[in-house]
Each structure stands twice: as C-alpha cells, then as structure tokens.
C-alpha cells in the first residue's frame, strides 16, 4: 500500500483507545496529528471595539467549551465580575459541566440541551424570553445559529471573543505526507497559506463535513475520502473503509 504517512489536522487524541491508533496498527500506517489552525482569544482592547458591555446581560449562550474559556478569560481581562444571578444556556450537558472550571455549578442557574444542536435549546431560551442573552462566538461561526435565534425572536447580542488563525509550519518541519485529513474550510485555507504552490499530485485528501468538502473542491483539489456518509458516519470509519479497499486492491494485483 502506497500510503505510509497520514497527517490528521487535529490535536492528538487523549485516549489510546482512539480508532486512529487501531487503523495505524492494522494497516501499518504512520498517523501524525497536527492542527492546521489554532484558536486565539481577542484582547480586551480588541473586544472593546464591539462596544459590548458584558454586565448588561443576564444570560449567556454557549455552544462550545472554547467559548466558555474565552468568555471567562475576557471577563478577567476586562475586570468584569460575573454576578451569581447570571444564567447559562449550553448545547449539551458536557459543555454545561465544563462551567465547573470557572463557577460553583450547583449554585447557578444552568440549562442544557441533549442533542448538541442549538435547536434543542430554543424551548428553554424562549421560556426565559425576558433574559438579555450574550452569545460568544468565533470570528468564523455558524450563521445558522444566529438565523435560528433571530427566527425565534431571542433577545441576544453576538459577541466575537476568539478567532481562528493559521497554525503555520516552520521551515524545519517536514511535509512529506501521503494523505492529509481536514475538518474545516479554515484548515484548507491554512494549507494554501503555508504552501501557496501546493501541488497535490498523488497526495490523498480526506475531509469531514460538506462545507470542508466544498472548500477542498473550490481550491481545485481532489477529494479522495469523504465523511460523513451512510456507510461511514465518522472520519475514522471513512479512513477504515478506504484503507480496506486499497489494501484489498493491492493484494489482488
């Protein structure tokens, strides 16, 4: 099999039980993990330009742990004290539980959905229609979320608190991969920023999500492995199928 070295543009899994390690062992592939993008918070000076006063809000909507980190970090930088009366609305229980890093969980009013989708949280937001919501987001965020909040007439303000930037490669870093795996359009942008003359040739490209797939094709690149799809709901499932196919094909030669 020609593919020996794969770059997955995500942080290395914390657990050794990750399917990536099983795939690497099963097919004799070296899988390396290196994000093409990284998240950095806005400085208090940058945030002030949005003319948003955090103390004016009575509730916060969180769609990710990253948003929680940057919200509390900015509050600290701005010297804003969050009142005990602040309500928190989170897309999942795991995101809600992450609040324990910053607040005494049992003493606060916390609400969460079950599906991980903002739709699931809408009934709770509507029920507390008197609240003035703050919605911390990245500079690159899901516009469907704001459209959903607008549709349900939620009284909220979108606050950009962090940004996605390219995690640049150093001249010393080898870029000798047979396959690249991406999870966001930002990753594709970072690839082209780091390697303006990138020539795909025999390098395989895999990606997760329709927007990432579109970014691959819009960049004039060839997409070889795509997820999710019915037979491969995850990126690791798609890779497993792909390696199984090319392994079978090489044996039949």
TrEMBL record:
GO terms for cellular component: cytosol. One of its GO terms (biological process) is uroporphyrinogen III biosynthetic process. InterPro entries: 4pyrrol_syn_uPrphyn_synt_sf, 4pyrrol_synth_uPrphyn_synth, UROS/Hem4. Residues 24-236 form the Tetrapyrrole biosynthesis uroporphyrinogen III synthase domain. The keyword Signal does not apply. This is Uroporphyrinogen III methyltransferase. Pfam families: HEM4. Coiled coil: none annotated. Keywords: Methyltransferase, Transferase. CDD domains: HemD. It comes from the Bacteria. GO terms for molecular function: methyltransferase activity; uroporphyrinogen-III synthase activity. The keyword Transcription does not apply.
